[in-house]
Amino acid sequence: MNTIPLVSEAQRERQLRRSDSALPELWTLLDSVTDPEIPVVSLWDLGVLQDIKKDGERLLVEITPTYSGCPAMVEMASEIEKTLTAAGYTNVEVVSLLTPTWTTDFMSTQGREKLREYGIAPPAPKAQGKKIACPQCGSTDSELISEFGSTACKALYRCGDCLEPFDYFKCI
Amino acid sequence: MRPLVSQPLIDYCIAQGDDALIFGQRMTEWCYSAPFLEEDLALANVALDLIGRAQMFYQYAAELADDGRSADDIAFLRDARSYTNLLINELPRGDFAFSMARFLLVDTFNVLYLEQLVNSSDSRIAAIAAKAIKESRYHLRRSRDWVVRLGDGTEESHQRMQKGLEEVWGYHKELFIETAGERELIASGVAVDREALYSTWSKQIDTVLAEATLQRPEDGWKVVGGRDGIHTEHLGHMLSEMQYLQRSYPGVEW
């Protein structure tokens, strides 16, 4: 069955900010900055990168933290600065926003696919109560082992078919 | 001249931060000591959420006070008497059952409280609450599961769960006590009326305890004083460890 991929309202707004941006080359440049814990997913795909603005000579990069205490946030901000500095932009400020509150709805379709290929089951927004599909074999015969996986954003599952344990990126 | 910032608002943010930081720091003591690996990770992650929450409140307090102190200064350069966290957050970690009993009481409260705090008239506080509520809902799901699993488990797990509950019970009263400053903030729609949450909290706890086949302890005793800086003997010891680095090497960074 073919399904039409749906994009959340929040995600659509983010996409518009990117497509309407006067600084497209910077968005492309920052596509190289990834989550230090999940190196296949860019900050854009993860939904952390919200906006890039110019304030006079200064570049403002707005990000939304995933979890309140996520230790990767500091690393992400410093990677953004490094990448822009290396490209010749020396006057850069990374601003951490509390609003909009980060949600897994911000994650791009491409980001979800990359997560799955990497072996992490992507967040399943409308699947509350539904079984999580194993990223290795696709089976939905899975069970929760622990509400928390290796990081705050993941939970630990086990596949009943291929018997492999796997991380599930929690939907929040 | 900068506009006058109300002292109760600064105190409130610091108290909220203290509650989260002290509880979070206490729970990091489970690192490498939890019953099994997954639980070790879970407790560390919950602790991180709480410490992150503290950081957000302290950051706001530091901006409001604008007295040269950073969020880190607020966390690391105060003595026990200046901390205004509720006592339930500072009690030693105890055994796993005690920790889960405490989590249940606090998580249940936090979810009810944050559900209303997201409508705070202070937009920054509302934004912090919007972030925190997602995490607290998740914490509660887990602590509720554990209390039921241990309470309705083996004879030993049941006994230890009941004992943990009895030991922490007298500390829950403080969750519902308001300071004078807090009442001002409730009147202006910034803070949430804690007292009004009691009956819902109580019912929700009863539901979980019934499912867990646990007895609700008697309300015969209570311990209060945290908001006034009157603490148990445990907080000072915890701070001496938590603040060691900043006290020994002032201003050190990495």
Number of separate helices of chain B? 10
Question: What coarse outline of chain B follows from CA principal-axis ratios?
Answer: globular
Oligomer: heterodimer
Number of domains of chain B: 1
N/C terminus separation of chain A = 28 Å
Q: Tell me, what is the CATH class of chain B?
A: Mainly Alpha
How many beta-strand segments of chain B? 0
Quickly name the level 1 CATH class of the largest domain in chain A: Alpha Beta
Structural class call of chain B reads mainly alpha
Q: Tell me about the largest β-sheet of chain B.
A: none
Order of helices and strands of chain B: HHHHHHHHHH
The portion of residues assigned to helices of chain A is: 25-40%
| Helical content class of chain B | 55-70%
Order of helices and strands of chain A: HHHEEHEHEEEE
Mean pLDDT reading of chain A: 88
Characterize the main sheet of chain A: 4 strands, mixed
Q: Which two chains have the most extensive interface, and how many residues on each?
A: A-B, 21 and 28 residues
Mean pLDDT of chain B: 95
Which architecture of the largest domain in chain A does the CATH hierarchy give at level 2? 2-Layer Sandwich
How many structural domains can be distinguished in the coordinates of chain A?
2
CATH topology of chain B: Ferritin
